[in-house]
Structure formats: C-alpha cells, structure tokens
Design a protein that fits this description.
Number of strands: 10
Cofactor: pyridoxal 5'-phosphate
Keywords: Lyase, Pyridoxal phosphate
Structural class: alpha/beta
GO molecular function, one term: L-allo-threonine aldolase activity
Pfam families: Beta_elim_lyase
Number of helices: 22
Radius of gyration: 25 Å
Bound molecules: pyridoxal-5'-phosphate
Shape: globular
Number of domains: 3
Helix content: 40-55%
CATH architecture of the largest domain: 3-Layer(aba) Sandwich
CATH topology of the largest domain: Aspartate Aminotransferase, domain 2
Protein name: Threonine aldolase
CATH superfamily of the largest domain: Type I PLP-dependent aspartate aminotransferase-like (Major domain)
Length: 475
C-alpha cells in the first residue's frame, strides 16, 4: 500500500497530469488517508505524523464513514486517468505504480505474444483499494457478488461464478454438465479445451474429445459436426454429450448464423453447448462498433453480449485477456449449473477467500477497458495492412486483435523476423507468427514492427524468395 505521504504527492501529480483541480485531489487524498486510518493503529500513527497536510488531521473517522462513498472518490480520480488516456496519461505513473511497473508498461507496449500480458493500471488498483474484504467461500464478499451479478446480467444468463482462469471456467463447465461416462465432447482440433488444458477433460470429467478439422479451415460448421456425430448405444463408442465451441479462434469471429445452426443441431440431439469465450468480449466489441452502440454502457454491452451468448448453455468469459484484469474468468449459465460448478470449484481447490480485490479490478476492466477493445482491433488491422504491404501473407481474416502472418514470400522465416525484432534498440517481442494486440500495445510498436519487416524484406536476397519455411495458421 502507498504510504500516505507518497500517495499525496502521487495523487497531486496525477491530478496535475490529468487536469483535475487541487480541490478534487485534496478530497481524494483525504479519502485515502482516512481509508488508511480505517485499517488500524499502525496507519493511525503515520496519519498523526507532522508530514501530512493539516486538513487531514481535522477530519474524523466519523466524517469518513458518513462523507466518503465507498468507491466513488478513488473512482473519480481513476476515471480521470482513464478519461485522460487520449491525452497521453499513461496507465502507470512512476509516482504511483513505481519505476519498475512504469518500465514494465513500456515493455508490455511492445510485446505481441498475447493479450494476457497487460498490467493492471494505477486507476484499476486505486479502485480496488475500496473493494470489500469478505470471504467468498462463505459468499460474504459484496464486491465479488456484485461482479458475478453484473456479468450474469450482461451475458443474459441466470448466474455467474468468478474463477481464477478460463481453463478453470471451461473445465468446470464440462465437469458440471457431464455426468456418467462413457461420454465425449465434440470440438475443433485446435480447441483450447482439447489441446491446451493438459487433458483436464479426461481427468476431471472422464470425457474423451472428438476433435474435428473445420472443412472451411476457419471454424466448424453444423455440417462438419452433423457428419461426425457419435450418438446411440453402440458399445464401442463414447457418445457425444456436449459440443464445445470457441469464439474467437485465431482472432476469427465465429459467424453467429453458424452458431445458431449448431445450436439447433445440439438441441435436436440433446447435446449441451459450451463456449470457450476467452475472447467473446472482442466479438462483442466488434459487434457493438458495427451497430454504432456504446461499449462503455452496460445496457449496450448487454444487448449485444446476451444475444451472442444466447445459444450457449455455459460460457467461460475471460477477464484477464483483452479486458486486462490481472486474474480471472467468469463462468455463466443456469443457476443450477452454476451451483454445481461452485461445488466443483471448491473441490478443485479454487474456492477463494478475500477475492474482492481481484473482483474489483475485473469490474474496473469491464467498465474501462471494454471501450478500448475496438482500438485494439483497429491496430491489428493496421498491422495486417502494413505486413501485407511489406510482402507477407496474412493467414486468417483479421476480425479482432490477432494477426497471423507468413513472411516466407519475402524469403524470411518467422525465426529471422523474431530475432531481428528482438535485436532492435527498443526490442519487440514475438513468440511465433501470431501477433496479438492488447489495450496497452502502442501504435508506435505496431509501426516499428511493420518498418522492420519492410527493411528485412528489402535486404533479403531475391534468390531466397519463396524458399523460407512457410509459417502456418497455428493456434
Ligand atoms: C481460447 C482460450 N481459452 C482458454 C484459455 C485459458 O485461459 P487461462 O490462461 O485464463 O486459463 C486461453 C488462454 O490463452 C485461450 O486462449
């Protein structure tokens, strides 16, 4: 926690930075002092030291209880930071987050490996300071309860469960839905639930996966699934009980008409339909923009998200990818399913205690980072355009925040490109031919990446063109 003196200076600095007047900053400072005062004797000692401004000592604890609405004041300053992002206020100010985190933000801005790489903003953490500190296993944490209620509402489902990761949300959905083996799940052969969750479905749910290759190379279709359905009583097989889809996959948006067809098929055969919606917020952000709706309004998000998720029985919605919560994912579904999932979450060791700090940061992320997603999609489009212009092939439609490129037409391998980017004076990090844009990616990093690939392309010998190893559309 910040010392009162540091926080005073930092907030005044922040206030100046974002153009918030001294009066407002003083009220925030008082509020934080008094919040500190609320936490115990050691703080109280600091508070009565001569280093804090005189007006603070005049305020009583009673005044704090009556005058300070719990999240509103920290929220004011935090909102000012977010609102001032366009005016170049960074997500981390050295005066608040410290030098190491301010530096980390600069590195993250040039890191294209994944959208989980973002760091919590100062504003997000200030907001979380006032989160409730109850025990979520006892269901006694109002901030966590409020987050679950909010996401259930936004997604149009009855209930929601805050989990530590989307791997956990997915596995809980599978475990809470499937009951008696033998049983199987139909999914894409690249599905996270199948390939990237350490075989969890086999262990936790005793389920086998029937992993299909989409005939169109991008996403499964109802025809793909129907042709491969495994139902009935043939004792050789583990019959399908669930279809699990993923949206987005490789940044590509699953067409909703196809989802509706798959939903009809699922209902016809009494199969549960799950969505790994790790990046469903990106799908919603794209749709909000397409319809001219406002990604900062819950009513608009709800209109779009609930429609997108309506066909699914269960959805895992990641909070720590595009939205930039430090940790977390939410499983949504019917009340009875979520009650069961809560039980299994405890069994998996995922029941958490004072989760309010995390829930508040996730809540902040929905409010303040959801509106940033459209910008990440624009940056991705710009990156794709620049790479294509440099002579690379773009391997999948760039619908959201991912660009898969193949530099082999330039005579370059992905490894060569990665090494050159890593060797830049201000390095750019890539782990393969997938570039992921997140809300802290800087436009300059995108331009630098494009410029470097242009340069490498010009320097590559003509004789090498077409000979380099072709990069593929991976996960
Ligand atoms: C599509 C998809 N689903 C699920 C996950 C798992 O998320 P987590 O890291 O929160 O377990 C990921 C992580 O990258 C993912 O990309």
């Amino acid at each position: 926690m910040l010392s009162p003196w540091t926080s005073t200076q930092a907030l005044r600095g922040l206030g100046r930075h974002v153009g918030v007047g001294a009066h407002k900053v003083n009220s925030v400072v008082s509020s934080l002092y008094l919040a500190d005062r609320d936490v115990g004797t050691s703080r109280r000692t600091t508070l009565t030291s001569s280093r804090h401004p005189p007006h603070v000592s005049r305020l009583s604890v009673r005044a704090f209880h009556t005058a300070a609405p719990s999240l509103a004041i920290a929220d004011d300053i935090a909102r000012a930071v977010t609102g001032a992002a366009a005016a170049n206020a960074p997500d981390v100010l050295e005066a608040i987050g410290g030098l190491a985190n301010a530096d980390r933000l600069k590195r993250v801005a040039r890191d294209f490996r994944t959208d989980t790489i973002t760091i919590p903003t100062d504003a997000q953490i200030l907001y979380a300071l006032r989160a409730s500190r109850g025990d979520d296993v006892y269901r006694e944490d109002p901030t966590t309860n409020a987050l679950e209620e909010r996401v259930a509402r936004l997604s149009g489902k009855e209930a929601a469960l805050f989990c530590s990761s989307t791997t956990m949300s997915n596995q809980l959905a599978i475990r809470s839905t499937l009951t008696q083996p033998p049983h199987s799940i139909i999914c894409d052969h690249r599905a996270h639930t199948y390939m990237w969750e350490a075989g969890g479905a086999a262990l936790f749910s005793q389920a086998t996966s029937h992993a299909l290759t989409p005939s169109n190379g991008l996403h499964l279709t109802a025809d793909d699934i129907e042709r491969n359905l495994c139902l009935g009583n043939d004792i050789h097989f583990a019959p399908n009980r669930m279809i699990s889809l993923e949206n987005t996959m490789s940044g590509v948006v699953f067409p909703q008409e196809e989802i509706l067809k798959i939903h009809s098929l699922a209902k016809k055969h009494d199969l549960a339909l799950h969505l790994d919606g790790a990046r469903a917020w990106n799908v919603a952000a794209r749709e909000l923009e397409r319809r001219g709706l406002d990604a900062s309004k819950d009513t608009d998000i709800q209109a779009v998200l609930s429609e997108l998720l309506e066909p699914f029985d269960t959805v895992g919605l990641c909070l720590s990818k595009g939205l930039g919560a430090p940790i977390g994912s939410i499983l949504v579904g019917s009340k009875s399913l979520i009650d069961r999932a809560r039980w299994f979450r405890k069994m998996f060791g995922g029941g958490w205690r004072q989760s309010g700090l995390l829930a508040a940061q996730a809540d902040w992320a929905i409010t303040h980072h959801m509106p940033r997603l459209a910008g990440t999609h624009k940056l991705a489009a710009r990156l794709a355009e620049g790479l294509e212009d440099a002579g690379c092939e773009i391997l999948a439609p760039v619908h959201t925040n991912m660009v898969y490129f193949d530099p082999s037409p330039l005579g370059l391998s992905t490894d060569t490109v990665m090494a050159a980017l890593a060797a830049l004076p201000d390095p750019i990090v890539l782990q393969d031919n997938r570039c992921v844009i997140h809300h802290q990616t800087s436009p300059k990093a995108v331009e630098d990446l494009v410029a470097e690939v242009h340069r490498l392309g010009h320097e590559a010998p003509q004789s090498e063109r077409g000979k380099a190893k072709k990069a593929k559309l991976g996960y």
